[in-house]
Specification:
This protein is of the alpha/beta class and 270 residues long. It is 29% helix and 26% strand. The strands form 2 sheets. A 7-stranded mixed beta sheet has the order 6-5-4-3-2-1-14. The chain has a 7-stranded mixed beta sheet with strand order 7-8-9-10-11-12-13.
Length: 270
């Protein structure tokens, strides 16, 4: 398994996962030309991507999905609520699922789980490689750490985790009070402090990479976020690497260790 962050933040999000010659994209929140340029940087042909799974309907996760699907033949998958919230996905032939469903791709299984965010039916994802059992958890745009969020972060090799804002910087920042309340609310975004606690609780012998995602450009700082989350990881004896996704650059690839510490966990949310 290899995972790249094609970009993450309020201006767009996209995560590429590759294994055994197959590729899946989680979100396509950039214009089609931007997606093509960033894929070219890692020598990936857009048409080689099997499917694109959309986590929710906000434009920074959906912007390029429908046009890219039509041009490059991607199979689109989105929750029923997401399709209601962004009808262009349905017009592009997106396959509807319910949060909690599993999507079976050529080489990978994608488990979708509900996440707390101010969207119609937002989901996070756990991508599992069938041949090796390697797992990647993608968990951003989360207002608080729910049980399903913890499930996404359980026994993964690579974890993409939101560290959106520093609480002090948010309070002192440029946003009106109502926007601050929305960001910090139960269906907004995860703070560095909350991300640090969740990362600490997610450490297992298999966890090799933690990638911080969806950092606010106005209410966070890469160094501040890394120090906060690294403190939590250190408490748990983390032996992997901590990285930060960029808004305008590709970061990766991130891979599991050469061998997993054990078989992937079996879990059921419902």
């Amino acid at each position: 398994m290899k995972l790249w962050m094609l970009g993450s933040g309020s201006e767009g999000n996209a995560v590429l996962i590759e294994c055994d010659g197959a590729r899946v994209l989680i979100d396509a929140g950039f214009p089609m030309r931007t997606l093509a340029r960033r894929l070219a940087l890692i020598d990936v042909a857009p048409a080689s991507i099997e499917a694109c799974i959309i986590t929710h309907e906000h434009s920074d996760h959906t912007r390029g999905a429908a046009m890219a699907s039509r041009k490059w033949g991607w199979a689109l998958h989105a929750s029923e609520g997401t399709i209601r919230g962004w009808p262009g996905l349905g017009e592009a032939g997106a396959h509807a699922f319910r949060a909690g469903d599993r999507i079976a791709l050529t080489r990978m299984d994608v488990d979708t789980l509900p996440i707390p965010h101010d969207a119609e039916e937002a989901v996070g994802a756990v991508v599992t490689v069938r041949s090796s059992g390697a797992r990647a958890g993608i968990c951003y745009d989360i207002g608080h750490v729910s049980e399903s969020v913890r499930t996404i972060c359980t026994d993964v090799d690579v974890l993409v985790l939101e560290a959106n804002h520093d609480e002090g910087m948010l309070r002192a920042g440029p946003y009106p009070y109502v926007v601050q309340q929305r960001i910090a609310g139960k269906h907004g975004h995860l703070s560095n402090r909350e991300a640090a606690g969740l990362a600490r609780d997610s450490v297992t012998p298999s966890l090799n990479h933690v990638v911080l995602a969806h950092l606010s450009q106005r209410c966070n700082d890469h160094g501040v976020a890394r120090r906060a989350v690294n403190a939590g990881l250190t408490q748990a004896g983390f032996r992997g690497q901590l990285s930060t996704a960029m808004q305008h650059d590709v970061v990766g690839p991130f891979s599991p260790r050469s061998e997993r510490a054990g078989p992937p966990a079996q879990y059921s949310l419902f």
